[in-house]
Amino acid sequence: MVDSLKKPTFEEIRPGVKAPAKETLLTPRFYTTDFEEMAQMDISPNEDELLAILEEFRTDYNRHHFVRDEEFKQSWEHIDGEKRRLFVEFLERSCTAEFSGFLLYKELGRRLKNKNPVLAECFTLMSRDEARHAGFLNKAMSDFNLELDLGFLTKSKQYTFFKPKFIFYATYLSEKIGYWRYITIYRHLEAHPEDRIYPIFRFFENWCQDENRHGDFFDAIMKAKPSCLNDWQAKLWCRFFLLSVFATMYLNDIQRSAFYASIGLNARDYDKYVIEKTNETSGRVFPVVLDVEKPEFYERLEVCVKNNEQLRAIVSSKTPKALQLFQKLPYYLSNGWQFLRLYLMKPIDMTVKRGAVY
After folding, report:
1. Which residues are paired to 32 by β-bridges?
2. DSSP for residue 29
3. 165: which residues sit within 8 A by CB, 6+ positions away?
4. CA–CA separation, 83 and 316 (whole Å)
5. Pairing relation of β-strands 12-14 and 17-18?
6. 252: Cβ–Cβ under 8 A, 6 or more apart, which residues?
7. What are phi and psi of 160, to 5 degrees?
8. What is the pLDDT of residues 231-250, one digit of tens each?
């Protein structure tokens, strides 16, 4: 009985290979897009910046960085029980997100090779970075006697179609929020090494620089395609994607606050800092950002946190599945209402702050 408490069991598709987490609105997604529209994109309005970023990708600053050292060569059985489950879940979610980027960027590089060579090479080199990240995370899972079958993930995951414009918004925010997540954890553990429960966190400083460069690439693409940033529709979509990314992270992380506590972080404080910094960074390119300092922003997210707790309790109950839908409905409606009110909150107009004329 004690062993079962110390060593959580995970569903496996075969011995040692973890079954992918069940897909929900909050799990990492795989994306596809209109490759022909992407290939026809005119990058000449910002070609110099894109060529400079391409040179950085070619330099490959982290080519010797992701190498496991002696500190990994030990038993990790002391990370047990709930802490072990949450840590494996953290590695899986991170690996899946990085692998999602790899697949999208690799396919873009392949499809654009003969039509838009500058973009094609940028995407191919970014896919190289994401492959390293995903492989490093998957190898870390093997320290806990598990791994993901990335080939199985490729075939089994559902793919969400986004038009190129939406890919730009989503991936820009994904890369920039990834930067702030990684660097914040790194700086905390640099100051508090006693909280560093596993050596992968030592790699986060260089790692997040990959994320930052990728975000800069999408920043440059959007500047080359002014319609992404300079009309009323762009303002609405920027608000939508900012809210989607921030809310998804907040709801996921609060649900897993015990993991952050295990490395000495308060999940709410951590998320608020990451959201604030990502929002600030986004304001350098997006025409509007969210007013995340307004108390209402987190008050409404906290309502969603409580609603999600009730939804999980319903799923875990012995109530027949047919009746669970009726029990869940009020909480779904409440979440929808909170998101609508969050979306309708007055944003901060960055075009005025930057003195830009749109």
Report:
1. 161
2. -
3. 225, 227, 228, 237
4. 21
5. antiparallel
6. 26, 93
7. -100, 125
8. 899 999 999 999 999 999 99
